[in-house]
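Researcher: Here's a chain I'd like modeled. Treat it as a single chain, no partners, no ligands.
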Amino acid sequence: MAKQHYDVLIIGAGVSGIGMACHLKRECPGKRFAILERRQSLGGTWDLFRYPGIRSDSDMFTFGYNFRPWTGGKVLADGASIKNYVAETAKENDVERHIRYGVAVKTADWSSADKCWTLTAENEQTGDRETFTASFLVGCTGYYNYDQGYKPDFPGEADFKGQIVQPQHWPENLYYTGKKVVVIGSGATAITLVPTMAEKAAHVTMLQRSPTYLMPLPSTDKVTLALQKVLPEKAAYRLTRARNISISRLLYERSRKSPKAMRRLFLGIIKRQLKGKADMRHFSPDYNPWDQRLCVVKDGDLFEAIKAGTASIKTDHIERFTKTGIRLKSGEEMEADIIIPATGLDIQMLGGITPRVDGQEVALKDKVIYKNVMVEGVPNAGMIFGYTNISWTLKADIASEYLCRLINHMDRNGHQVAVARDTENSKGDDTILGSLDAGYIKRAEDRLPRQGTHGPWKASQNYLQDVKILRFDPIEDGYLEFDGQPSRASEGRSTGFLRPLRSALFGA
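Model: Modeled as a single isolated chain. Structure tokens:
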């Protein structure tokens, strides 16, 4: 089949890929682009995960795109509602027709001679191969393996006579009414599954090795509802979004600066929620707040299930599976009809693709990330990677905006090739997720790109700072190289503080 050429190719039709495509339509009109999506539907995470209660763990007023306000009403939306929101966004911005479904990208090769990317892809249903070329490539694949999550090899697993169910591959009609269920894990998936399944199951136990910091969050925002009654929709949305961004940032910063005080705050909130109905040892982590991601409890549903006696938490280690359940290292036997290992994600960059530049494989673990958007030494390529401490989409939006700025800058100046060069050898030891200490991140240290020790190579988890860098700082900063020539570092002046702050809180 003949090569199909595009100005821009986007890999992945999830939240990031659809967002990038919408920004292209808005900010780079006339660019010919396509989205290559392995699955048969858009939505990414929100199409893949189907377990009971699947929902956002970020508030939707900041998780929604900055150019299309979330109007669903709920602060924490269910997975189907989020997928529908992404689909409606794609349709409204006329990017739906640009999606190529069932196309799994296998290779991505940059040629300096041809000044373009060549991608080979396979239709996994038919086995047919296709070839695509593009001037610019954007990876929007998220950061985990869609084929499988992480699951330890539990001793005696084959002996268990009940069902073992993986959250990432949830059976369509799993019957658990009146069943004893054990959910292994204490992350966002477990926190969602336990109270939801407890509504029908005989009993649900969350079995954790160590506790997680939890924060109850109401599913509806009374303040926002009041604002919507007296203000225009757009104004109410911007005020709510600004407030939520500010609160999220404040909680994160205070957690890093005053961990003991914030620990007391978080544990105090949980203690009031439980009202003496559970042992606080199960809710008291041995690490500081935000060393790992904070888990949101919708309407305090987990606490309500515990108080009602339909759910419980056990902190222990697994010795082995048995015919009837799990034996713990403490010697206790836990009976179970269904066991659900909610044990985390398997980190995977670029959907498992190993890019090549002029025939040389790019080992991401040996590379640093420029402004958390481009891989150093990799020409004409971007990578959309959202936040881990606040809503993913906040970063995805401004990263997409930056790539559009870069593409337009190249067009205005007649440049064909842009590449970030780390001439200062700034590579540090931390990965781009180095601010978090979760197990799934530690397991992926050999796969994740590094962040630098300073400058544009140091990954930021600060939205206000990133707005200034990605929206307002000059494209030519001395680190980007265009057509083999270093850029100037004097293209523009500082925008100060107030303009980026206003832009971050209330829109571009």
